[in-house]
Amino acid sequence: MPKNNRYFRIMIDPKLLRGSLDTIILKLLDEHGEMYGYEITQKVKEITAGEIKLTEGALYPALHRLEGKGILTTEMRSIGNRMRKYYRLTESGQEEVVQKLSAMDEFIKSIQLILNPKIA
Amino acid sequence: MPKNNRYFRIMIDPKLLRGSLDTIILKLLDEHGEMYGYEITQKVKEITAGEIKLTEGALYPALHRLEGKGILTTEMRSIGNRMRKYYRLTESGQEEVVQKLSAMDEFIKSIQLILNPKIA
DNA sequence: TCTTAGGCATAGCAACCTTAGGTATCTATT
DNA sequence: AATAGATACCTAAGGTTGCTATGCCTAAGA
Question: Are A96 and A110 in contact (CB under 8 A)?
């Protein structure tokens, strides 16, 4: 029994997430304007009713990568004695979201064609 | 312009495929009973109207991996002077397909919740 | 003859996720 | 007061796994 499964519920196999993480991040930032890392993990958990849990070891490197590419910018803010690093889309990030979303859409359609030939 | 894009059409970003390749292979084998490698690449291309193209460098290692796990068995057959290696699901492979398919289904639902909050 | 299609395979590379740890603050419970 | 859990950031090591490039071979067609 894996540690992260202590709630005895079925979770999404993290391997499936490979390739979709950036899209998820960008979409959430597009929707909410700005978010900090921890907030993103919580939002994903909330939306998917716990099915998808972003690990920090995946999230933070991804955020840094996207920032490095000029897709995101950051701003540090102190909340009490805590520091939060807020991320938001740059202009090129805005374009990136559109592309990523349509790419993901195409991908899902194609996968459906293979996996659910009757429906699709 | 990447080599594999010489037909000047939009293709699925191969990165999205990460994590889904095994499921695709297993589903096709489940549906067709037995298939050989090249046949799988063609079938995927056909079903998805060219959107998804499995590279051989991805497919063959994946097939060998699945065989190594006991999920697939193989049988060589000579067609004329050509050799074909046919793959089919083992019993444990049959169970694996069911699990993989429902996992993929859950995953797509969850992704939809994030990316298309209005629809889902 | 040269190219394209069919058919298999591997080595090296790169991406990136998981695991596992580290630091620190705040709140609630014991 | 001590402990635990949530909040909040981060990184290193290791492993999985797809892609690129390449190799070998046969068959068919221009």
Answer: no
CATH fold for the domain made of B14-115: Arc Repressor Mutant, subunit A (1.10.10)
Rounded to whole angstroms, the Cα distance separating A114 from B44 reads 7
What is each CA distance from A75 to A24, A85, B45, in whole angstroms? 20, 6, 45
**Distance from the first to the final alpha carbon of chain B:** 36
Please tell me whether the overall predicted TM-score, pTM, comes out greater than 0.85 for this model.
Answer: yes
Residue among A85, A106, A73, A12 nearest B115 (CA):
A106
Indicate the DSSP class of residue B75. Answer: E
Question: What pLDDT digit, counting tens, does each position of B56-112 carry?
Answer: 999 999 999 999 999 999 999 998 888 999 999 999 999 999 999 999 999 999 999
B75 touches strand C (CB under 7 A): no
Domain boundaries, chain A: 14-115
| CA A30/CA A88 separation, integer angstroms | 8
Query: Does B6 contact strand D, using a CB cutoff of 7 Å?
Result: no
pLDDT in tens, B41-59: 999 999 999 999 999 999 9
Q: Spell out which residues of chain A touch residue B15, defining contact as CB-CB under 8 Å.
A: 18-19
